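Predicting holo structure, fe (ii) ion bound.
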Amino acid sequence: MKISILGLEGTAWNLSAAIVDENDVIAETTATYIPASGGIHPREAAQHHANHIADIVRQTLKKGGRNISAVAFSIGPGLGPCLRTVATAARALALSLEVPLIGVNHCIAHIEVGRWKTPAKDPVTLYVSGANSQVLAYRKGRYRVFGETLDIGIGNALDKFARSVGLSHPGGPKVEELARQAKQYVPLPYTVKGMDFSFSGLTTAAQEALKRAALPDVCHSFQETAFAMLTEVTERAVAHTGKNEVLLAGGVGANLRLREMLAIMCEDRGIKFYVPEKRFMGDNGAMIAYLGLLMYKSGYSTPVPDSRVNPGFRPDDAVVTWQ
Ligand code: ATP
Ligand code: FE2
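Done. Tokens:
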């Protein structure tokens, strides 16, 4: 019988349910929480997910819900209240459908959906989203973290800066647009420590820089500085691991300037650069369902008593059973 997995994603502001089989996404339904003001309020986002999850699941099952083999959900990392709301729904669904429950690591799901939907086989992955910024690669049964942010994710840094100058959430795309009108680069702190990077000082310095420079120039300089840091660490992970592919994942991966810098680096090194379709870059239910499918095929399941969410779940704490 064909395997099909229902996956639920709701680690932050996006609530999404999807059904996938081994070949493709059969159905996907999404409801996005948009904060009335400011950034994401975890409790409000969780309330949004609670309000919409029944409907999202119902619509998804209606579109493609025959013979579900297992229910997968993001067990972490993410915002605690959001994770708990979606996990409760996943447990109830698995019990009522009488199928296994599979708790998946959200970061690894970003990587696996990229390996599924691009030709990448064994890449160095740059995963850049609101809360996360990591450089990862597979080695000996785990996805190792080669470099990561020491404070906030690049997306949150962009959003925070954008909000402070009166732009609405999410700020990343607005900063990208403004940066196109820039006339000059203003120096901002470039912070790479070993293989790790930091963005909170950059956000503060960018706000400071507005006293002497125009907003588009600061947006441009913010991007140039932050993306150069990410590209440098990604390149060093490539050199260190000897891998010959780079995969971009996460919502910030929509940024064309970041893509351009990574593409140039990969071309210089003579390696491949892969970017999945946009729908698979930001948080989506399909990636959770697909990693669930890989784990299901490897015989993995999460007993309900062990299905407590883990808001700080690191990708290198997950044992890869499916490769
Ligand atoms: P995670 O739970 O993995 O941290 P998330 O909830 O932040 O994910 P994503 O959809 O992966 O969700 O990423 C959202 C982030 O991507 C926001 O911070 C947003 O500003 C940023 N972003 C979206 N488009 C762009 C862009 N074109 N340039 C820069 N940043 C962008
Ligand atoms: Fe994500």
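DSSP finds nine helices and twelve strands in the chain.
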